[in-house]
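Worked example 3. Consider a protein that binds adenosine-5'-triphosphate.
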Amino acid sequence: MIPEDFLKNIAASHGVSELEWDVLRLSIDGKSIKAIAQELAINEGTVRKRLSDIYKKFHIDGRGPVKLAKLQQLLVNQYQGLSNEQVSSNLITNIDSSVGDKLPLNASQTQDWGEAPEVSVFYGRKAELETTTQWILENHCRLIALLGMGGIGKTNLAVKLAKEIQDKFEFIIWRSLDNQPSPQEFVTDAIAFLSNHQETELPADINEKISLLIKYLRQHRCLLILDAFESVLRSGDRFGRYEKEHEDYGIVLKRLGETEHQSCLLLCSQEKPREISLLENPKGLVKSLKVEGLKVEDAAQILQEQGLTAKEHWKSLIDYAKGNPFALKIVGATIKDLFNGNVAEFTKHNTWVFGDFRTILDEQWNRLSKLEKQMMQCLATETKAVSLSKLKKEIPQISTSELIETLASLKRRALIDTSHQNKDESQTSYYLEYLIKKYVKKYHLSHDE
Ligand SMILES: Nc1ncnc2c1ncn2[C@@H]1O[C@H](COP(=O)(O)OP(=O)(O)OP(=O)(O)O)[C@@H](O)[C@H]1O
Ligand SMILES: [Mg+2]
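Given these inputs, the predicted complex is written out as structure tokens:
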């Protein structure tokens, strides 16, 4: 085995952070993403993100499982080179078994679940499952987006849905865009899988490639799932547009949404891609579902599972977390740890935003434009929902149209909410959800409360 000290030095020399180091150490130990997430009490998406950053720091490319093997080999080589010692065959065995761990569980030729997480515990979401199942199986929707803030449960809902309806499809492909594969890579990869690797000479042009993909989506009933779609959208853009090198994902969505075929592309995204806004229609074949927090009774099961006490305080805890299962898991774990599981003790203290929920919010924050940040900071100082006219007075330097665009963009990112005092749209007021407000106040305002 490579001694930990040695590993830590190499990691530090490649700029690996403390948070990334934990993920690196456990991956090298052969732990699966799920096991690492559990051990570090963080989201699986975060583990993947940190791993992806680690790979970048070591200049490792390729696909998921292969990357880990490459990294392990590189570390072994460096260790051998520097210490000139024989590395025990143990490590090599470890490399093989850990790679095996991460290969898709279902190795059939018709299903490739990629990096889809295994969903063993899943509460509620009956209505969401019914609606989306109907859209897919009865209405034959071609393009569906599950939208909502980080940690709200989009990925888990997509897995549950796809597993429930899998036997209605000839092919299933799950891809996460977390590592930002290019549109060309995604389409090529999908064609290779759907053609059973028979299509070897593909056209270079993306439009022609998409036409070929559509040919397969017509021939076979396929379910394609693209998770973490926000990864290819441009940070700080108000219109759900793409990073330059990922613009062709827009063509993929447009063509798959508009052209006739018998398959379905399901997206999970924190932000709404503009093609969805342009193509969706209540009676059409392109739809989106805003994934909200869990119902109180379903969210309570997360707290129950964690063995928390003082049930009379659970509802307010769930309300504060807006039923966000990820936030509840983090908060629950902390209450267990610091307050012996007593929710009442926890609510006496005012530390709502911490742990890995912060990482999620940091990620969202970094995506915002300067104006959006300014707006969030302004809303964070308010105690009540604020009307448009009041906001105009608060931020006089920006025009009304910019103000409206910024608010719409923040709403799409699920960072602000609206309340309507009466039916007149001009009376709409805007506010930050509790957790988000706490976060902005704590980390992005110089004058903390
Ligand atoms: N219905 C549910 N029942 C129990 N736990 C859930 C449920 N939905 C999600 N969770 C848990 O909440 C966490 C976040 O869920 P998930 O990863 O699906 O969120 P997400 O919306 O995809 O977040 P992100 O935008 O960061 O990718 C996970 O740990 C998951 O296990
Ligand atoms: Mg997700």
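Take a moment to read the result before moving on. The first helix runs from residue 4 to 13. The CA atoms of residues 218 and 261 lie 4 Å apart.
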